[in-house]
Amino acid sequence: MERLLHGIDALLLGKSDEARASFESLVHDTEDPLAQRLLSLVKLLGRRDRLQATYLATLRHEIGNPLSVAQATLEGIVDGVMDPQRERLRGVLASVQAASALLNDMALKPQAVEELLPIRLETFNICALMNDQAQSVSGAARAKGIELIYRQCGVAQRGECMYFHGDARRVGQILQNVLLNAVRYTPAGGTIEFTCDNPEDDLVVTITDTGPGIPDTDLPHVFEQGYRGERAHPAQGSGLGLAVVADLLAKLGGSARVASGEGKGTTFIISLPAARLERTPGGVS
């Protein structure tokens, strides 16, 4: 009885780990049915708390990304170092719209981690999306003294554009996360190259930077949530962005791989399946 009361007191005080240990010990020793029910309750509350923490951290990260790139571009325009070009302003608008849409996602109240960032299928112009992402991140790159080289998709160069049946917002998040990761780790004076093509009709996006590279020991873990590597500076991200990329690509049926080495920069190669692509005449709209 003493252990049972101790576990209940710990639960009421919010000490879930201590409560769980008490109930587990009691169940192991006595198979007390009340302790079993309380242990199930503690586990349920633990899952809920972890879901809420993951949910809020993910939304904070994903809302912060588009707002930060919009801010960097607007600051560049106000300071006179960037021209208020139509395409650049369209990138800012796309970033603000992305943040607004993510705020709307907060009302969905997911019941499982898998329900975070749900997919809504539509058909959209991948050339226009790529262009918007390049423009939106250009301010953050320029503010750090990095040259962002955007090479128009090969399909657009051939007088066509690629229409993708998927979720434009989520594909935009994928690209923005990888681009901002490159900006974060590339030093001033470096370059980032951003392009795409469709070998065998797959959509393949390549983002290459001249940053310090990723040690071999860290490469297998770059898409794990919270993993930042032993040499990551505290200011260099939360370890969430690439985990979000991996999760969204899995939902869209795509994949990502990374090639890197210390002192050699990093290349991310993002693939989306051919079955969801359609060629349509016309360039970026």
Total of DSSP H or I helical runs spanning 4+ residues: 8
> How many domains make up the 3D coordinates?
2
CATH fold group of the largest domain: Heat Shock Protein 90
Q: What is the CATH top level name of the largest domain? A: Alpha Beta
- Which geometry do the CA atoms define? elongated
Provide the residue-averaged pLDDT: 76
Poorly predicted runs of 5 or more residues? none
How is the biggest beta sheet arranged? Answer: 5 strands, mixed
Percent strand equals 15-25%
CATH superfamily of the largest domain: Histidine kinase-like ATPase, C-terminal domain
Which CATH-level-2 architecture of the largest domain? 2-Layer Sandwich
**Order of strands across the main sheet:** 2-4-5-7-6
Order of helices and strands: HHHHEHEHEHEEHEEE
User: What class do helices, strands and sheet pairing give?
Assistant: alpha+beta
Description:
With 285 residues, the protein is an alpha+beta fold. It folds into two domains: 2-45, no CATH class; 56-281, Histidine kinase-like ATPase, C-terminal domain (Heat Shock Protein 90, 2-Layer Sandwich). The protein has helices at 2-12, 16-30, 33-78, 86-105, 126-143, 154-157, 168-185, 241-252; strands spanning 122-125, 147-151, 160-166, 191-197, 203-209, 255-260, 266-272, 277-281. The strands form two sheets. It has a five-stranded mixed β-sheet, covered by helices on one side. A hairpin with a 5-residue loop joins strand 4 and strand 5 (203-209). Helix 3 runs antiparallel to helix 4 (86-105) and helix 3 (33-78) crosses helix 5. The relative contact order is 0.11.
